Amino acid sequence: MSHADDLIRLNAADLAGRLAAGDVSSVEATRAHLDRIAAVDGAVHAFLHVDADRALAAAAEVDRARAAGESLGELAGVPIAIKDVLVTEGMPSTSGSKILEGWIPPYDATPVRKVREAGLIPLGKTNMDEFAMGSSTEHSAYGPTHNPWDLERIPGGSGGGSAASVAAFEAPLALGSDTGGSIRQPAHVTGTVGVKPTYGAVSRYGSIALASSLDQIGPVTRTVLDAALLHDVIAGHDRHDSTSIDMRWPSMAEAARNADVKGLRIGVVKELDSDGFQAGVRQRFHESLELLEQQGAEIVEVSAPNFEYSIAAYYLILPAEASSNLAKFDSVRFGLRVTPDGGGTVEQVMAATREAGFGPEVKRRIILGTYALSAGYYDAYYGSAQKVRTLVQRDFDAAFAKVDVLATPTAPTTAFRLGEKLDDPLAMYLNDVATIPANLAGVPGISVPSGLAPEDGLPVGIQFLAPAREDARLYNVGGALEQLLIAEWGGPILAKAPDLTTHELTATEEGAL
Amino acid sequence: MPEISAEQVAHLATLARIALTEEEIAHLTTELGQIMQAVEQVNRVATPEVPPTSHPIPMQNVFRADVVTDDVLSPEQALAGAPERDGDRFVVSAILGEEQ
């Protein structure tokens, strides 16, 4: 037990080191994580699907290759959880929707292919808001994920399953997708690290599209270095994605290890440092900045006046693109088919299928997007939102002319209670106020834990943003802050998370999984 | 800015091919009105001289050679998830109804 407990608490980089040294086998490490999932996932519900047999077989293959002296990637043998938005050959891929229940894709998404080729061990698929529409995972058609810090609270969304899986030590690494904050906001509320790379840095091929001009795949981890190592595995040009950037990327792991902020100019976006943010979120944000300043960083206030229109623009652009992307769920080629009583035309079958297969938030956004794209309204809504996108980009350009990176609190509040905002879409949408601008402009962002809010003892994150293609700057500053905070805390933030083992008995009794 | 009516939502549902119930239409009519009121503030700054941005990282004419590579799906793979098939074809319901 204690040996397995040690294994699940190792960072990916440390576990990789022990695997390479031969101290532990990938089968042992994989089994330890599968046991942890069996013990706690009944309570957390981070996973929609766990493939123990195939994970153990993949682990055995890595162990064999290592024993045979074959050349392996740095993370070979390390387990990973995969957000259900990414299609996986041989594993069901639902994007959190009933319309894809049981669908097993015939191919791997490019980031999944890359992690398999690097020898990582996919454990299973993680829960998410249906088609990534949400900030709490409460819109999953398969029930919500629970925050490991407080099981009555949201784990963030849409990638709450990926964030909760690493926070609950069910996996050291996970893949996520970020359209308006779905990697960074869950990181903020679960005390984990999440990165949205530059748009086009990681292939979107095989990622079930939400909003194609905003979606980006990225790492979900417990440390900045682990995120960097995973980023290095999944990034790179892919001819299957026409928006993929064709360039040679510097090593993110090297940037994370560099962790030197001397002379770094950090801009604080004054519009996102306001009373709209919970007191403890702001307090930890400013303490983090002070730590960085003591290490030689220069803190500069900058203004981004058009950021306040970001949410409005986002909730026009996203539904418009989503209503178009989700047209593929037509009951013909894959997924659910519902035939009305007495049969019907293909259009009637399609309408009955989509009525039965989509949840309320998906319907809301498809109807909203259909409206925003209607003749007569297109210019006023979608066209205007695209102009706001230009203005947000100009704000970023002006800011990055003065500073190297920007800093904001990642989200306005700590994790709220499950159900608290479910009936108020506009309140739910406000969660993404600080994360959306990066998606509109395509720039990269990272959320790093900055402490626990004094008023409720829940984790909060700080977000750093960098110019497009300058993802390495995020790992440098994130790595530096992480070192400073861990030294101050005397250990990682997740050491303070409640012990989930008290839930083991309940989970086992319920026959969870 | 126009109010959104239940008739409009019902029409949008037809366009979007979702057989919404009356209850859903009523609920969505209220919500859409509120959401549109919130998002129409984009018009405050979206003045005529501002060019629209459709894509965050500018790219033009991403082409590839028109050749079939070895990583395309086989007919069996492509049809593996089909709700209904006939040999190597997808089966769909009637395209035209009786009244058409």
The main sheet of chain A orders its strands as 1-3-2-4-6-5-10-11-9-7-8
Termini separation of chain B: 37 Å
Uncertain stretches of 5 or more adjacent residues of chain A: 504-513
General shape of chain B: flat
The fold-level CATH name of the domain at 1-47 in chain B is Histone, subunit A
Level of helix content of chain B?
25-40%
CATH class of the domain at 1-47 in chain B: Mainly Alpha
The total count of strands of chain B amounts to 2
Report the average pLDDT across residues of chain B.
91
Mind explaining what this structure looks like?
By secondary structure, chain A is of the alpha/beta class. Chain A has a domain at 2-258 and 443-496: Amidase signature (AS) domain (Amidase signature (AS) enzymes, Alpha-Beta Complex). Chain A is built from 18 helices and eleven strands. Chain A has an eleven-stranded mixed beta sheet, with helices on both faces. Mean pLDDT of chain A is 95; it is low at 504-513. By secondary structure, chain B is mainly alpha-helical. Chain B has a domain at 1-47: Histone, subunit A, CATH 1.10.20. In chain B, 33% of the residues lie in helices and 4% in strands. Chain B contains three helices and two strands; from the N terminus they run H-H-H-E-E. Chain B has helices at 6-15, 22-39, 75-79, and strands at residues 85-86, 89-90. Chain B has a two-stranded antiparallel ribbon with strand order 1-2.
